[in-house]
Design brief:
This protein is α/β, with parallel strands linked by helices. It is built from 19 helices and 18 strands.
Amino acid sequence: MAEKKAFYITTTLPYVNAEPHIGFALEIIQADVLARYWREKYGKENVFFNTGSDEHGQKIFEAAQMAGQDTKEYVDHYAETFEKLKGALDLSYDAFIRTSSPEHVRAAQEIWNRCKAKGDIYEKEFEGLYCVGCERYLTERDMVDGKCLIHQTEPKLLKEKNWFFKFSNYEKALLEYLSNREVIIPDWRREEAINFVKEGLEDFSISREKSRLAWGIPVPGDDTQVMYVWFDALTSYISTLGWPSEEGNFKKFWTEGVTVQVAGKDQVRFQSLMWQAMLFSAGLKNTDQIFYHGFINSGGHKMSKSLGNVINPYDLVAKYGTDVTRYLLLRHVHSTEDTDVTDTSLDEWYRANLVNGLGNQVSRIMKLSETYLEKCDVAPYESHGTIATLLSEFNFQRAMDHIWSEITALDVFIQQEKPWESKDKVVINQMVTKLSHIAQSLSIFMPEVSAKIISTISENKKPENLFPRLNA
């Protein structure tokens, strides 16, 4: 028998300067689906699913000051709001790493020491335009009309003495890494990364003056500086596995396992270039694969607090429930492109596909089964054939569409056979069997709904409404 594979998957670590938003909910639910699928296929002991909170940097320091709070108390509060997503979204992660934790601090300082020993860290005085929103210095290609491309704000001119990472040392190594079509999904994000390298990599600052920003991990051997937040935070992907210990979880899941990262499309430079260069420098294995999802917009605009169009995942759960929230993000948000979402569209998807779709179908079938069959059993089903292929391509939307095509096909079967007229027990049993297959297919996407359908089949009893109608 072939040796089982070990799989490691991590989200990015959300920056805890505000409440969770729907974009991160999408990312962590996508990662959760993959983790659940791998556990079913390879065993729970062979999957490690990580998330956490990114807690250092100037944005957080300034936000805490504006709120009149101690910085540690501030990040404790917001880290907790992200940890609570586990229950709200029925997440199955194995670890929640906080970058303020002692074990992470040790790992961040160790990777610094390794990169410095390699000759890839040096000190120099630098003057540049700094975007607080991006937490980095900007180049001309990062700005339009003197403003940051992402945040549309004017960067601050800063001059200070910092430590720098020799990013330019790794142009050749990164191009070789990126030549493998498997390392980035979708492929056009890989091309984006390649083009960025070919344009030339500039060494980047990896520290900040402590006198200006005290909230950060101290630079080893220099008590006047703290680490640049990205150099610190990226290390969380391995600190969560117990690194710098090379044994245990790190050996099983990173060194010898299949490593997968899930991130937003604006993260290509950080995840596929800066982080990989750090791994090269520290003599560690590179990430096997990084999947980049698109953004969720609302009403034709990028979500922002100023526009008042931000959708909070907790609000979705309060309105629709956990599994419906998972469904809406997995099926109606494109896996790799930007998607526009509004309150109206969410309501329409819920009514059409769940209330009047799956929910109605379960009620009809189980009412017939309860009336005409003495008992029915959940038919064993290898539910993840086509779905497995689609998940290997990170196509969550098409995987959900595949399940809904089975739901549609079952509706057609019901209309053709008209069991309410024929009362044919064989036909009704076939309907229940097909429904059980659908329920099993849903197990990694909508685990609670899947379990409810399987339970009602086992009890041979029409359930309460799976998806209540919305109040007018």
